[in-house]
Specification:
The protein has 268 residues and is an alpha+beta fold. Helix content is 38%, strand content 12%. 34% of the residues are buried. The model has no long low-confidence stretch (mean pLDDT 94).
Length: 268
């Protein structure tokens, strides 16, 4: 029974690492089979070897293998950056070359309108295999989707690249009184997971930030105006508040999670 529990626990670790990083579970299982338990300081050595092996694979191998599957890494530059190092370390920053070009175009448009402001992305896709899920997202599985952060103002009412949450998710721009409340409707229908992302912030780091409606509207317009963009998800009350009308902007459905903490865009 004890052996069964140990095996089950190791399988669980491999599953969690796979869901988080795509490749972590595979590396973990290889080391589990190759590193002998009889060596001195087994657990410390195995942990150290795993970390080194994982990081080397992530930064030295995966970027060169991903193009075989039609994907490439989103590069941080003067116009684009990841909201969190977690996204990069966990290989959640891969897209098709077409989407990479599209978000670069959007970022340059925003940079022209608001000097110094970058396009800050959250989760994109894993590097390998179409159809491979990227939890907790329902559709980030083909390299054609990416989540973009809103733009905020600081305590001096200046727009900034800072974000209110570590991972960028879960700090919502709730409906104002009198605005259409899709969140209330979905939760009333029993979709309990609709605001689940509030548990995935990994901490609030800049609670003084406020949504910049002007800059976020400019961002949304830049996304809408990109020809290759097929669908955009944002909560209905924000679409109406920002005053951007486009057939590309859709409601994502109650089975997903609320989108008043980020913009989801995907190619046609």
């Amino acid at each position: 029974m004890k052996i069964v529990l140990k095996i089950g626990f190791k399988i669980l670790i491999a599953i969690i690492l796979t869901l988080l990083t795509q490749i972590g579970g595979f590396i973990y299982l290889i080391l589990e089979l190759t590193i002998k338990r009889t060596i001195k300081n087994y657990r410390i050595i195995k942990s150290g070897v795993f970390i080194v092996s994982y990081l080397m694979t992530t930064f030295m191998a995966v970027p060169y293998l991903a193009p075989i599957f039609g994907r490439e890494k989103i590069q941080n530059n003067d116009f684009i950056e990841a909201c969190s190092l977690f996204t990069i370390v966990c290989n959640r920053n891969y897209v098709t070359p077409e989407l990479n070009t599209t978000i670069l175009n959007i970022s340059k448009t925003i940079h022209k309108k608001h000097s110094g402001i970058k396009l800050v992305y959250l989760d994109a896709n894993f590097p390998f295999i179409n159809g491979f899920p990227l939890p907790p997202h329902l559709s980030h599985n083909d390299g054609k989707k990416v989540d973009i952060s809103f733009i905020y103002t600081n305590e001096n009412k200046k727009i900034t690249n800072k974000k209110p949450a570590v991972l960028g998710y879960g700090i919502y721009e709730d409906p104002n009184q009198g605005e259409y409340d899709q969140i209330k409707i979905c939760k009333k229908k029993g979709y309990w997971q609709y605001d689940f992302a509030k548990y995935l912030t990994f901490g609030i780091i800049n609670n003084q930030l406020k949504l910049s409606e002007k800059a976020t509207k400019d961002l949304l317009l830049a996304i809408v105006n990109e020809q290759n963009v097929g669908k955009i998800f944002i909560e209905p009350h924000l679409k109406n508040r920002l005053g951007v009308q486009s057939s590309k902007i859709r409601f994502h459905g109650c089975q997903a999670v609320r989108h008043d903490d980020h913009i989801h865009l995907q190619l046609k």
